[in-house]
Amino acid sequence: MKLILASASPRRKELLAKTGLPFDIIPAKGEEIITKESPAEVVMELSQQKAKEIAEQQTEECIVIGADTIVAKGETIMGKPKDAQDAYGMLESISDDCHQVYTGVTIIRVGAQAESITFAEKTDVYLYPISEEDIKAYIASGDPMDKAGAYGIQGDFAIHVKGIEGDYYNVVGLPIGRVYQELKKLL
Questions:
Q1: Checking DSSP bridges between strand 161-165 and strand 24-25, what pairing results, if any?
Q2: What are the residues whose beta carbons fall under 8 Å from the beta carbon of 179, sequence distance 6 or more?
Q3: Pure H helices in the chain
Q4: With the CA atoms of 134, 168, 64 and 2 taken in that order, what torsion angle do they form, in degrees rounded to the nearest 10?
Q5: pLDDT tens digit string along 99-143?
Q6: Given phi > 0 = left and psi -120 to 50 = alpha, else beta, which region is 120?
Q7: What per-residue confidence (pLDDT) applies to 165?
Q8: Alpha-carbon distance 27 to 35, whole Å?
């Protein structure tokens, strides 16, 4: 069965490749419309929008995976930073504290046996105190600018991570173990 990842994220592509299943990439391009408030509901809503957009374009039986990841501190959602100042504020606010990373995933089976599943995974991330100099150096690297919460756990930011509770790959952008288990039910 044809498998489609509705994301242009290189991190999600790399993680989905760990399943050993062949897949195509067709990134969703629609406008993200948020009507929910809690972080878990928001990521599930956005993953549904992405998966549905691509699923509706398909004419043959296939499975479409849509995903969205956000960083939150409590109920306050942090998206991708608008600029360096925004990135600084985000990083300063999560320094020496715990925050949450949520990834919503929607898997849609298109065809005669159409079905879908949507879920959200949450991982708590604990950080060491991050100095002003370290924050500025990290921003200067350019790495935080395309990432929710202004950091990528798998890159140079790893030196600031004290620990996590939950799925590491969820923080990277796709809880691949759970995704694989759900895919097996649909294949």
A1: unpaired
A2: 16, 19, 65, 105, 107
A3: 10-17, 39-55, 84-94, 132-140, 168-172, 176-186
A4: 110
A5: 999 999 999 999 988 999 999 999 999 999 999 999 999 999 999
A6: beta
A7: 98
A8: 22
* Cα 121 from Cα 79, distance rounded (Å): 17
Q: Is the pLDDT of residue 187 over 90?
A: no
- In the structure encoding, which two tokens stand for residue 162, read together? 């004290």
Dihedral angle of Cα 68, 70, 75, 77, to the nearest 10 degrees: -110
User: CA neighbours within 13 Å on the CB side: how many for 7?
Assistant: 24
3 state DSSP class of 182: helix
Catalytic residues: 68
* 44, 46, 49, 54 alpha-carbon torsion, rounded to 10°: -100
d(CA 42, CA 159): 29
Looking at the chain, how many residues does it have? 187
What pTM was estimated for this model as a whole? 0.94
